[in-house]
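In this section we walk through a basic example: taking a raw amino acid sequence and producing a predicted 3D structure, encoded as discrete structure tokens. The instruction is simple. Fold the sequence below.
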Amino acid sequence: MQSRYNYRVYPNPAQRAALAKAFGCARVVFNDGLRVRQEAHAAGLPYVKDAELQKQVITAAKRTEGRAWLGEVSSVILVQSLRDLHTAYRNFFSSLTGKRRGPKVAAPRFKSKRDRRQSIRLTANGFSLRGNGRLYVAKVGELRVRWSRPLPAPPTSVTVTSDAAERYWASFVVEVDPEILPEVGADTGIDLGLGHFAVLSDGSKIDNPRFFRGAEKKLKRMWKSLSRKAKGGRNRAKMRKRIARQHARVTNQRRDWHHKLSTRIIRENQAVYVETLPAGGMGRTWLAKSVYDAGWATFISMLEYKAAKHGRTFVKVDRTFPSSQLCSVCGHRDGPKPLHVREWTCRRCGFVHDRDHNAGRNILFEGRRIVAAGQAETQNALQSASKTRAKAVAQRVEAGSRREGPTTRAGVPAP
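The resulting token sequence is shown next.
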């Protein structure tokens, strides 16, 4: 299976300029390729194939005066940029035809030089790892890398990225063997929320750390200071960088916490069941700041790929499942309840429920039912498809476009 290893790199001023040139050339080639295909579509012409597109926007463009500077960067970077465009179109077409599950994917869009995040991708022909521990990138030079951990295998590709805080990263894709953990007898259902980040089916409640809320006061002061500085001035650029670094710090705190929590849950449970939440829709309500501060989607994706990596079963319970309406003891559906109702009594069996704990137990029962009915991928299926699933996770950050009485059910004792 494929996995991604991310490291911080420290280019010198000359290498920063070379990387900026590479970012710009990759962006221009992507936009040129998109423009050619859009013009062909508008003229009623057939879809321009990849080989023909590469000849037009790279090979022939280098011979023109307006694009001669494309020859100053590695051709591998330019070719991979067109491959990213191909992937964006493939995802768009698959979404239109229904072959791609999940939310609809928009058509590819033009990239902007004003985007704070820029990236290039290179295959084995465009980079190498030197004996002195440095990363050689064609026509850029040897980049100093902070090796926080060793690579388990020779990398097949690398993505060099610059973020809004002007930090540089090298992300390697390597082939690794699954690390199957010893089997355990426990499984768990997880109810995600805002008051508590997660409530497990055994009653454990995990507090929501609210990293952004903790840094919000400082960010407000920094934004106020930025508004006083003249546009285009050096002091404004410095403050913008400070704000970006503060946001990056919050992101790093949240990601580190997500990693530690997801690893602990995967290690302690043989099967994990979690309810999917409409984070995109909730992000358009008055809860938007709290929803994005929680980072549910990132946490669920971590659980999913770690389950595939470590030999665990992972099941997503559909968001339409009424986990908060069902009694986890007798199965009676008590109906919808407003958010301020945190405890309720079942009208059939009289059991008093904690809303979140009850939802976690119902998610556990539903996840077991899905697995027993064969409606979800079992662990054997996960292992057989681990290469494909892990590859999708590994390419996540690549450059490209987007868009009956109180009896116990399922053999689990009542709380």
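Looking at the output, two observations stand out. The chain has eleven helices and 14 strands. The longest helix spans residues 234-268. In the next section we compare this with other chains.
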